[in-house]
Amino acid sequence: MADTLTLFTSIGLSEQKAKETLKNEALSSALKSAITQAQSIHGASGVDKAMGTLLYSMASRLKDTKRLTFLSESIALRKICTELQLAAALEFVKSHPHDPINQKEFDKTCGVGIVITPEQIEDAVESVIKKHKEQLLKERYRFNMGLLMGEARSALKWADGKVIKNEVDMQVLHLLGPKTEADLEKKPKPQKAKATENDMKVKEEVAVNGENYKTEGYVVTSNTMDLLKKHLELTGGQIRTRFPPEPNGILHIGHAKAINFNFGYAKANNGICFLRYDDTNPEKEEEKYFTAIKDMVEWLGYKPYAVTHASDNFQELYDLAVDLIRRGHAFVCHQKGEELKGHNVPPSPWRDRPIEESLVLFERMKRGLFSEGEATLRMKMVMEDGKMDPVAYRIKYTAHHRTGDEWCIYPTYDYTHCLCDSIENITHSLCTKEFQARRSSYYWLCNALDVYCPVQWEYGRLNLTYTVVSKRKIIKLVETGVVRDWDDPRLFTLTALRRRGFPPEAINNFCARVGVTVSQTTTEPHLLESCVRDVLNDTAPRAMAVLEPLKITITNLAANSKSDVRVPDFPANEAKGSHTVPFTRTIFIEQSDFREVMEKGYKRLTPEQPVGLRHAGYVISVQKVIKVRLKMGKVVELEVTCCSSETAEKPKAFIHWVSQPLMCEVRLYERLFMHKHPEDPSEVPNGFLSDINPNSMQVISSALVDSSVKGAKVFDKFQFERVGYFSLDPDSTADKLVFNRTVTLKEDPGKI
């Protein structure tokens, strides 16, 4: 086991990831074989991290293990060098299950051996620019450059996207020249009508209050109209909804849609919405869940009309159960729990026992005279999915969070839900599609007891790709150490999204954009992220931060030179305020903003090419490159001179910088799972735990940020210029701030 762990870490897996992989026998065996195959070609130390990542990705995604050796060899021989090629290779072996593999066809399909020369890229970009030249000259830098990139990439499928972008930038600059003042003016965005909770798009008709009987499947009895009339008199015709979570877990993005729909529908119709805890299972309920649920509802901007509990009604629910028995609609049963599972439950031999006998036995259940599982109260009805006689009450000798040891029998969801709705005079019981099978039992029970019956209306739940939201699976992720807790920013629980820096307005806007339909909705995370960017662009003040610092000494400034530089909080609207940062002889820039060897299309700092410093009014030029060792060593410092940007020739680029900065920790997140549907066995045959992205979190412990953020509070949000949107994490201390990347500045399919 220890040898295998060492083998896995040798290819770049973290120790935690390697241990987790070892728990999955099938994945562990496949990865071990793949590494062994690669090492037979390159030797024990010849498998670098890039190759290791491809081997891990291949082993976790390959369904037909007989192709393992073939693909491992292709990666080891560097025929397959990129994720793009690996995806094509996996698709090829999947569609060619029979031996032998046609090597020539495989190589062609996967781009093996294809070398895209700079000349080919230059020609392809030139051709695309020629095609759009007229429009480019007309719109200049307002033209959608992504169109040029897309067409050039289509022509050169296996080319490096970054190289294509550099070539596009260079040829556009050659055609149009440097940007003018007019080009730098921001194009006014057309005002988008922002979706709000009042705009929740309901694409199917919801029943009008008081006209419940017009709803499909609604049961009308001789008392229905009288009960509706009494309900309308009590409520004044007011719309009443409720959000009824179970307090046994943390809310997730799917709950955000339910919160928005229930509260939003009530608000749009001048109604009220209750927050009701469905606290009928004391074994799983904890105080932290009650608190967290209310916190998240209020964080999203909603205030419940009242906070209620199913347990508020335990006595009334019990009395109604006694009435149900008296009416001949329920009986005490002694079938065991195992017998009652599934849909083909054998008929109960106690179904027709005398009413008086069931009343006595139910009272004995209440008094604690039966063991757990020895008796249940069941309702005499058939549900829409064919399940017979669902359980109404079961015995649990567990103290309840609110009622203590007062009760040892607890009602089930099927019994409690509709009756609590009736007791609270709810008009619309809005719930997700999986509860459609319970609609008939909802209506049956209210009518069997002759109580007011609300309308149940089902809508499609919201699902996101690249994640799991099941409580059981999130607990598994926490227990195995894949994530830290329910609020780990890689999850899509609401506490995790808050910690990552998602504004509640963005989540509400996202729910409004998705709308409400009866069909299931599966959405890509980038649509949610787009809503986040829309909000943060207007609300997150700018700051400058350097994630991988490179020291710069400005030799023509005095050793004690110091000035204040004004930085606008929102460059597009400077009236919204500004802050100052120091500018001294020593500054720091991103390592990636300097290259010792000039490359075609590179616009930032090189020994031959000066660069501007954002907001500072200076242009710097390299005088000396200082390395750890001569020539081959790492660049650790640059000595530069500066001059005013007013007198210098306009540089090709302006970069961000920091001076006298604060050291901070920055956490960069990517998708937690590698596949769109990690719970789908056809996509991830070894289970969701085998699909964890080993690079889902990167911690940069020595990043630098300007001093303007010093007084920030937990969850304060900033745009770090040219880097992304960030939020202050609760792990921050007085000595060291910790920032989570919320989203990148532009959409990146690989980021969460």
From TrEMBL:
UniProt keyword annotations, A-Z: Acetylation, Aminoacyl-tRNA synthetase, ATP-binding, Cytoplasm, Ligase, Nucleotide-binding, Phosphoprotein, Protein biosynthesis
Free-text function comment from the UniProt entry: Glutamine--tRNA ligase. Plays a critical role in brain development.
Main location group: cytoplasm
Domain Glutamyl/glutaminyl-tRNA synthetase class Ib catalytic: 238-537
CDD domains per UniProt: GlnRS_core (cd00807)
Domain spans labelled tRNA synthetases class I (E and Q) anti-codon binding: 654-729
Cellular localization per UniProt: Cytoplasm, Cytosol
Organism encoding this protein: Amphiprion ocellaris (Clown anemonefish)
Enzyme Commission no: 6.1.1.18
Gene Ontology MF terms in the entry: ATP binding; glutamine-tRNA ligase activity
Name this polypeptide is given: Glutamine--tRNA ligase
Subunit description: Monomer. Part of a multisubunit complex that groups tRNA ligases for Arg (RARS1), Asp (DARS1), Gln (QARS1), Ile (IARS1), Leu (LARS1), Lys (KARS1), Met (MARS1) the bifunctional ligase for Glu and Pro (EPRS1) and the auxiliary subunits AIMP1/p43, AIMP2/p38 and EEF1E1/p18. Interacts with RARS1. Part of a complex composed of RARS1, QARS1 and AIMP1.
CC annotations in GO: aminoacyl-tRNA synthetase multienzyme complex; cytosol
Similarity comment: family membership: Belongs to the class-I aminoacyl-tRNA synthetase family.
PANTHER family xref list: GLUTAMINE--TRNA LIGASE, GLUTAMINE-TRNA LIGASE
